[in-house]
Amino acid sequence: SPPSPGSNRRRKSVTSHTGNASVTPDRTIPRNGRDAGRRILGGRGRCRARRARCLRPAQRRRMAPEGQNRGLEGDLGESSQRLANIHFSPLLTRLTPPFGPPSQGPDGFTKQWKNAKGYDIFSYFWPTTHAEPKGVLYLMHGHNVNIVFEFLRGRGVGVDRVYEGSWIQALNKIGYSCCGIDVQSMGRSAGFGGLRSYFESFEDVIADDFAFIEKMADLGGDKFSKGLPLFPFAVSMGGARATMMILRNESVFKAALLYAPMLSLERISKQGLNRFLRPLIAIFNLVGPTWRLAGEAKSKFPNLQEEFDNDFFSDHSGATRVRLASEYLKVTEHIMANLKRIMLPFATFHSEGDTMVDPEGSRRLVAEASSEIKVHEDCPGSWHVLIHEPGNEKTLEKTIAFLNRVNPP
């Protein structure tokens, strides 16, 4: 509909994808650039999405690579995101604030590099100030989020997460350097067709993880050298990534730390509509791999859910794409069938109240793995986001105790 009389605003289309169809949400973008920034990046005047007409395929192809494939080097941005499933536009790229002191801390920095498929992968480094680091923690985030949201400290809805008071700061203080990447198509990394939260194969993600480890010293410097003990520090889907890497070549690591790892999805796949979708997943994977069908659980902590819903670089569409759901099922089935092959020392932290992934996966890992040092820590009263939920201080203490055990000072 046309603007109301006297309005100084105009309509602007931004491409998004729901399934394999491209939709153009009708967004009101003020002519004034500063007002546009306030409306898109947060504040009282957040952008409102409405139904609109579909773009023709040719238009969709022209618009898809733009913005997100720029890689957004150095851009962290304000939390508030109503564009979870939308390609980054040049306007958003210009308006997103840079990676600054609140998030990077006194010594943090970012680097970009291209993976085997040519996508820009965004990586983060927080070196310890110790002259001789004890080791390197490879941060591995979960589904639909990013390194900053997963590991830095939250301060409320619509506010940047910060290094001060975060787990990363605490681990830097005891001598560990921390680094990680945003998985392709998530966070600030580019991906297939410019789509948010979509990759063609989980193997592509694992390949990026191994490639980053090879580049880590060159990108990060002496505090990330290859001679230092390396530990996967993995959350949720990151736990599946870490476990697949361990099964592939566990000699790369000294020990592993897993937080609500996605090792099993059996219980989750039988809940709600998922129990009807699972038998059809192979068909959907062929005809509509980018469709969003698989449901996602909500946090039991409303404040944390609201922070996620308003994080600029997280995807809070509420449903997982068919291809990812199919890959996650395949990967977790492979992991559960090969637990006995794992010999690496590890600690897994999980809550029985987790409705995002199956805590039975952590129990079976401890029961079946061949590791001499294997620890299962229950997190009573928690849900899934253990690093940020009430009681996370105790989980951090147990984390440090495990590190001291497997990597004595």
Helix and strand arrangement:
Layout: E1 9-13, E2 16-18, E3 21-23, E4 26-30, H1 33-41, H2 57-63, H3 90-95, H4 101-104, E5 109-114, E6 120-126, E7 135-140, H5 147-151, H6 167-173, E8 176-181, H7 202-220, E9 230-235, H8 237-249, E10 256-259, H9 266-269, H10 274-277, H11 281-287, E11 292-295, H12 302-309, E12 319-321, H13 322-337, E13 346-350, H14 360-368, E14 374-378, H15 392-406
Parallel strand pairs: 7-8, 7-9, 9-10, 10-13, 13-14
Antiparallel strand pairs: 1-4, 2-3, 5-6, 6-8, 11-12
Helix pairs in contact: 7-8, 8-13, 11-13
List the quaternary state of the chains: single chain
Order of helices and strands: EEEEHHHHEEEHHEHEHEHHHEHEHEHEH
Helix count equals: 15
Rg, rounded, reads 21 Å
Strand content: 15-25%
Helical fraction equals 25-40%
For the sheet with most strands, the description reads: 8 strands, mixed
> Total strand count, please?
14
Strand order of the largest sheet: 5-6-8-7-9-10-13-14
Q: Low-confidence parts, pLDDT < 50 over ≥5 residues?
A: 1-97
Distance between the termini: 67 Å
What do you see in this structure?
By secondary structure, the chain is of the alpha/beta class. 33% of the residues lie in helices and 17% in strands. The chain is built from 15 helices and 14 strands. It has helices at 33-41, 57-63, 90-95, 101-104, 147-151, 167-173, 202-220, 237-249, 266-269, 274-277, 281-287, 302-309, 322-337, 360-368, 392-406, and strands at residues 9-13, 16-18, 21-23, 26-30, 109-114, 120-126, 135-140, 176-181, 230-235, 256-259, 292-295, 319-321, 346-350, 374-378. The strands form four sheets. An eight-stranded mixed beta sheet has the order 5-6-8-7-9-10-13-14, with helices on both faces. Strand 13 (346-350), helix 14 and strand 14 (374-378) form a beta-alpha-beta unit. Helix 7 (202-220) packs across helix 8, helix 8 (237-249) packs across helix 13 and helix 11 (281-287) packs across helix 13.
